[in-house]
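User: Fold both of these, please.

Assistant: Here is the first one.
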Amino acid sequence: MSKYMKHKLIGALLCLIIGMLILIYIFFGKPKEETHSYLLGFILGISMVAVYFLTLVFSSFKSKKIKYHFEMKETDERYQYIYHMAMACTFRLSIFIEAIASIVCAFLNHMQFAQELGLLVGMQLILYLVFYSIIKIKN
């Protein structure tokens, strides 16, 4: 099994474990109605991710063509470049959305949400600078 497929399998198993733990909490913890609805939606989303990853892994076991395709992804620089650019765009967009949501919450006088979103944006930017510095020093 390739490194890429091992990561997908581990990701799928982690998603399933987290989903099951939250499901156990829902049945035995008796959360509030708002929390209950949120957690059910979260479980649905994380379960779909797990099913997707497991489908990828098991389809690579059945088909040599699919397995070869996934092994090529590990060494193909074009794929790695596309992957990193997609992650970078996702990061930028998520910070932008969080910042806008924080400003909107502040104008709507929901200061607790505005502060929490602002804190998240700040933490993400600090982490970005830390990792940027580490990668810059290594290269």
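And the second sequence with its predicted structure:
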Amino acid sequence: MAKENVNPHEEIMNGVQEQLKEVLDESKQAIYVYLDDHHITYNQQFASLLGYKSIEELSKVKEPFVDAFVTEKTQETLIHAYKHAMEDKIPSDIEIFMKRKTGEPVKVKVIMVPIAYNGELLALHFVKKI
């Protein structure tokens, strides 16, 4: 039986982090896994790409993901790719501008893949500076 006091989305993110631990920890590429704006996991390379010292520092950002980390002019590109991943179960390969902690834009290539974990759909993102 599940614990009643534990948020099911927290359980999902903990499970995803555990399942992908080796990839998140050892990949030389920036990665994040997105369930919703309150349930995201990042690796250190993603934090560093955006100018944050640690995953913990990055995780303290409470704005919606696209507002905090994606330039306004490329937000729709990311949102459109996410909708296709969730609705059509297809990956995307897109170029967008993300925002560093300083607000400076950084051009990146994002490979987004839909993944399922315990009946929930999430988006796994590999991000590379270009």
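The chain has a mean pLDDT of 94.
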